[in-house]
Amino acid sequence: MSTDLSPVLAATARWLNRSYPSSGGAFDRVLAETQAQQAVTVAARLRYSTEMDATLVALAGPGGSARLDRLAGVETLSDDEYAWRTWVDEVLASWACCLLADPDLATEAVAATEHGTGMPAEFRRLTDPGTRERAATPLLRHPDLLHPVAELHREQLLGLLGVEGAAAA
User: Fold this and answer.
1) Within 13 Å and on the Cβ side, how many CA atoms surround 23?
2) Which of 48, 101, 147, 162 has a CB 3.0–4.6 Å from the CB of 53, allowing a cystine?
3) 24 near 140, Cβ under 8 Å?
4) What pTM does this model have?
5) Alpha carbon distance 95, 109 (integer Å)
6) Distance between CA 150 and CA 28 in Å, rounded?
7) What does DSSP assign to residue 142?
8) How does residue 58 score in pLDDT terms, banded at 50, 70 and 90?
């Protein structure tokens, strides 16, 4: 994945943090942002694993957050809010929710991406969240709250990873 997808990754992580905000102070917000960024990055490495995949999404656009916003209960958006949300990738958000809700699945996903990229990756906050990371993200890691978004594309993720649906659900 060499095409620059940073606007898509940033918007999708931002959507996650806005939809499932940290209730703590500045340090908690940074920990939550880091975990969301790691989850979206792993999801993007899985979804856009070739340069062609990444190029196509960069050209066509990711689709936006309209359905995600309905699931999260967002009713109205200002023009400023709407603009960045057009860069949100629904599949990446769904897969990131799956990974945030299930550290074991996140570990499987990271292992799958490391084989394809050959790059060392540090995703400890995603795969092995400590007490501090969990305390910073009570909403962002809550399986029941993430469920509606995670379920949108969970089966596709599980199939890609070769994981049984019942075991990871």
Assistant:
1) 5
2) 48
3) no
4) 0.91
5) 10
6) 23
7) -
8) confident
